[in-house]
Amino acid sequence: YPLRSPSSTNIHSNARWQQNGITVAGGNRQGNGINQLSNPSGLYVDDDQTIYVSDQSNHRIME
Question: Which residues sit opposite 60 in a β-bridge?
Fold first, then answer.
């Protein structure tokens, strides 16, 4: 289920992104370490630009 705030913005499913960037979550194989995710299922960015990822199989939300 997506997390939403009153000021949330919907991103169209056909949105295009520039191909330069950095990995901010995951990228270290599946697992339960502090630098790993297992079945990420949601993403939220708050008003302070803090990113939260719902890590479903590890039953946690990572900041």
Answer: 55
- Rounded CA-CA distance 63/51 in Å is 6
Contact present, 4 and 45 (Cβ < 8 Å):
no
Own/partner contacts of 42-47, CB < 8 Å, gap of 24 or more, are 42/1, 42/2, 42/3, 44/2, 44/3, 44/4, 44/5, 44/8, 46/5, 47/5, 47/7
User: What's the pTM value of the predicted model, to 2 decimals?
Assistant: 0.61
Q: What is the pLDDT along the chain (63 residues), one digit of tens a residue?
A: 555 556 666 778 888 877 887 777 777 888 888 888 999 888 888 888 888 999 999 999 999
